Amino acid sequence: MYEPGLLQIVEACRGKNLFFSPDVTKGIQEAEIIFVSVNTPTKTYGVGAGKAADLKYIELCARQIAEVANGDKIIVEKSTLPVRTAESLKRVLHANSRGHHFEILSNPEFLAEGTAIRDLENPDRVLIGGDSTPTGCEAIAKLKSVYASWVPEDKIITTNLWSSELSKLVANAFLAQRVSSINSISALCEVTGADVDEVARAIGMDSRIGPKFLKASVGFGGSCFQKDILNLVYLCEHFNLPEVATYWEQVVQINNWQKRRFVHRIIKTLFNTVAGKRIAVFGFAFKKDTNDVRESPAIDICKSLIEEHAEVIVHDPRVKAEVIINKISEALGTNTIKIENRLTVTSNPYQASIDAHALVIATEWDEYSHLDYVKIYQKMQKPAFVFDGRSIVPNKQLVSLGFEVYKLGQPIGNRI
Ligand code: UGA
């Protein structure tokens, strides 16, 4: 796992006030506060499959805590959960309490991958939700005091349990909605002559809109946005709010459309066929500064290109070849041997571009802005195309070298 700054923190704290242990019972018995941070993936089976969160692991934690606890505990929901999960947890815990008191708090995590340590050290806010009973208030104060050792008091906000649980899903939904909004506008820019980066800059300077999360892209990825929106959609359907469900589902649909649109653009530009053509895909992680590939748009891009019989060569500075091959095979529903002659992974971006008809930028790794594009151009087939799904390559320089550049959200047909 690659996360800038994480190794240094672990090295500095391990054995002092950070310990790793497989002994869960001992951990539960010794702790006053227990953070439950298990996975809550989208359900793949039964009722709510494809949308609802799978709460199996959360419930197992609650049962285990109740079973081995030797005193009162504060249990903190750190995992992202559907609103009102605490209610189910309370019921499981209280039904098995053996006389101990369990207080449940919700304390969702807002850090983003790639900037996790910075976000942890300097969060925009810390959210704590709990009951307004005397024991609830006492638990909230205790957790607040943990954060207060490095987070200013005015950034620690407290709410009821349900607001806190729901705020996590809503925060991610709003962030993803901004990306889908700007991505939808990128399509309009391409046909009208507007430039999406200029539009984003112009609207982002309105302090009511703000500049963040307005970067047009080949689509958002990661383990959270899609999962959390689908979870929100499921909740709205469950509470019989179909209009609200449809509204949020559209954010995911635009994201899927943007990925398809990008691949169609590649095929159309390459004279309506990529069959037998070598295409170098730069970047496989869902964003820079992480090696996480979950829901990465690069998976869909590679899958579609391979389905069109292209020969795909992937480079990513941090993702292992094995992970890339497995992910693409999984997406194609085939075994790794079958795609061996269609897919190569290389650790050298220059190697990837030899004889390539096109370069496709799928992740915004900084190094892709500084490659020796003269060298790359010389080795590529002509015309040499670049499809920039992250808007990071020096377009003007590339055009002056002879490349044909397609940048998301820039007028089509005009050389930049
Ligand atoms: C997201 C949220 O930003 C965190 O606050 C939250 O804690 C986390 O999910 C979570 O629930 O665990 P993360 O998915 O790690 O964090 O990364 P983001 O920076 O939000 O990026 C998500 C995706 O959106 C990436 O694929 C990124 O490339 C894309 N994106 C982001 C854009 O395409 N354009 C933008 O302007 C911003």
| H-E order | HHEHEHEHEHEHHHHEHEHEHEHEHE
Hetero groups bound? uridine-5'-diphosphate-glucuronic acid
CATH second-level architecture of the largest domain: 3-Layer(aba) Sandwich
Radius of gyration: 24 Å
Instruction: Name the overall outline.
Output: elongated
Widest beta sheet: strand line-up = 8-7-6-9-10-11
Number of strands: 11
Computed structural class: alpha/beta
Walk me through the structure.
- With 416 residues, the chain is α/β, with parallel strands linked by helices.
- The protein has 3 domains: 6-159, NAD(P)-binding Rossmann-like Domain (Rossmann fold); 169-253, N-(1-d-carboxylethyl)-l-norvaline Dehydrogenase, domain 2 (Orthogonal Bundle), CATH 1.10.1040; 258-407, NAD(P)-binding Rossmann-like Domain (Rossmann fold, 3-Layer(aba) Sandwich).
- Helices cover 44% and strands 12% of the residues.
- The protein contains 15 helices and 11 strands.
- The strands form 3 sheets. The chain has a 6-stranded parallel beta sheet, sandwiched between helices. Strands 1-2-3 form a 3-stranded parallel beta sheet, with helices on both faces. Strands 4-5 form a two-stranded parallel sheet.
- Helix 3 (56-68) links the parallel strand 1 and strand 2.
- Helix 7 packs across helix 9 (225-238).
- The longest helix has 32 residues, at 161-192.
- It is elongated, with a radius of gyration of 24 Å.
- The model has no long low-confidence stretch (mean pLDDT 95).
- The structure holds uridine-5'-diphosphate-glucuronic acid.
- Residues 80, 109-113, 172, 175, 179, 213-215, 217, 220-222, 224-225, 286-287 line the site of uridine-5'-diphosphate-glucuronic acid.
